[in-house]
Every structure is written in C-alpha cells, then in structure tokens.
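Deliverable D4.2, example record:
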Amino acid sequence: MIVEPGVVEEFLSHNRLAVVGASDDPKGFGGTIYRELRDSGYDAVAVNPAYSTVAGDPCYPTLTEVPEPVDGVIVMVNRDTALDVVAECVTLRIPRVWLFKGIGAAGAVSDAAVNLGRAHGIAVVPGACPLMFLEPVAAFHKVHRRFRHMNGSLTR
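Output generated by the structure prediction step:
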C-alpha cells in the first residue's frame, strides 16, 4: 500500500492523537511513539487495556473511554486487533487513522482495516512509522523514509 505525504501532513497537523498499543514495555514501539508525540508538543493519549499509565500519564483501556474526542489514532497493535480498533474509530467518528508498519513486518496494516476505514470516510495512513515524518526527523528515520521512497511505498 502506498503512503501519501499529503495525508501524513494532514494527520500530523492535528494536536490530540491517541496511540493504541502504547505501553512502558521496552520491547514495544507503541510507548516510543507515544513519548515522541508527547515530547514534540502533541496532546498524546495512551490507549492500552493492559496499562493504567504510560510514561507516568493516564492510559485508557479503549478509545471509547478516552474522556475527550481525539483528532486521530495511531494504531500500534497487530493487524487482527487493528481491525477492531478501526471499527471502534468508525463508531466514534474519529476522522483519521494511522496503521503503523515498521520495516519487515505487517504491523497494523491489512486490506480489511484500510478498506473499513476508507468505506466510512476515515483518512487512513496505510503503513509507515510516524517518526519518519515527526520533525526533527532522526537520521535512522530519514534512511527509513528514503528506503520507502525507493521501494515505491511512499510517494513524493
């Protein structure tokens, strides 16, 4: 699936973003995304039923339990669970969803999740890591972005 920079820019132009799958588990990348968003000035919201806090901040079990509406959701869970998250976004009328995909794994992306979101008017970023676009972009993430341009999965 192809990631379009315009959709990415529009997604990241909003301030209140939930990270589903955020945790304090050092093996999980959801906590890293959460902390980077928060430290970059976003009103980041952690969502994970296994945690009550992430990085010392409140963590909610589901999007439904987040007290204020969010502008978008970054989905950091596996593709089977991601479909349920997108369905919850449809119910809550959340207008933007980013389905995380790192190097070499499916991540949260599936045709079913992308199609469900798009069928309900949700702007979907179908893959990629938000850190490839969150300024200032670290060297590793610039290389990752360049690789995605070369393989055609990220348009210019």
